[in-house]
Amino acid sequence: MAKGDNTFKPHPRLIHKKNFLAFLYTVVGGGVTFFIVFFDDNAEFIVDFWYILVAITGGVFLVWVIFNILLFRTIVYVLEDNEIISKRGILHKRTRIVPFHAVTNMSIARDPIDRIFGIGTVKLHTAGFSGEKTPEGKIEGITNYTYVYDMLMRKTKVSAKIISDDETKLIYEEDFPTKLLETRKAILQEFIEIKQLFEERRKV
Q: Contact at 8 Å (CB) between 138 and 123?
């Protein structure tokens, strides 16, 4: 993602990761099938079966690779002033919008395969915003994940909102400590006045 550009895509390394996993899964699936048949005493050894198994395994892998490439081309992230929008889908187009003021937590996820390909995923969580247990938003397959994470952290803090009777006011991060301190002082003063009032009534 280039600075000043609000629309970006995952890095092409994400395709390499997806295809690598597809290769592992198809090889494991074909290998398990091979050993089950090979060590089954009741199974008849048919040479044509192994050709069929190899053909099916290769076909599944090829279809999986094509699917990964087509899906990758549809993934787009749009960074707006107040929200992050993710779009993806081959036949069924899906758009997910996460407002910054609804974000309660963010994290960077990197599994061992991500580390091999030098990519990461930034996950955005909200307090039940979508009713899902999984992250409501994620920006996967990017190489500058720390930069995106820091940028989104600044935006989510700046976008914290307080709703007043007549308008919505934005409160910036640096305002929080001062306003919180003033509120605590006011509460403490109220308790002191209430305590003094009770003590005066007891004397009477």
A: yes
Residue 143 lies in a domain: yes
d(CA 37, CA 174): 67
The domain containing residue 197 runs over which residues?
A: 174-203
Whether 83 and 146 share a structural domain: yes
**In the structure encoding, which two tokens stand for residue 123, read together?**
């996950």
Other C-beta atoms lying within 10 Å of the C-beta of residue 28: 10
> What gap in Å lies between CA 17 and CA 3, rounded to an integer?
25
Check residue 81 and report its DSSP letter. Answer: S
Same domain? For 70 and 80 the reply is no
Amino acid in the structure at residue 65: V
* pTM check: above 0.70: no
Query: What string of pLDDT tens digits covers the 204 residues of the chain?
Result: 544 468 889 999 999 999 999 999 888 887 777 776 666 555 555 556 677 778 888 898 999 999 999 999 999 999 888 889 999 998 888 999 888 888 888 899 999 999 999 999 999 888 754 445 555 788 999 999 999 998 888 887 755 443 333 333 443 444 444 455 566 666 767 767 776 776 776 665
Q: Domain check: are 112 and 182 in the same one? A: no
19 and 68 Cβ atoms separated by less than 8 Å: yes
Can you tell me the distance from the alpha carbon of 74 to that of 97, in angstroms, rounded to the nearest whole number?
16
Q: Dig out the tokens for 13 from the structure.
A: 């390394």
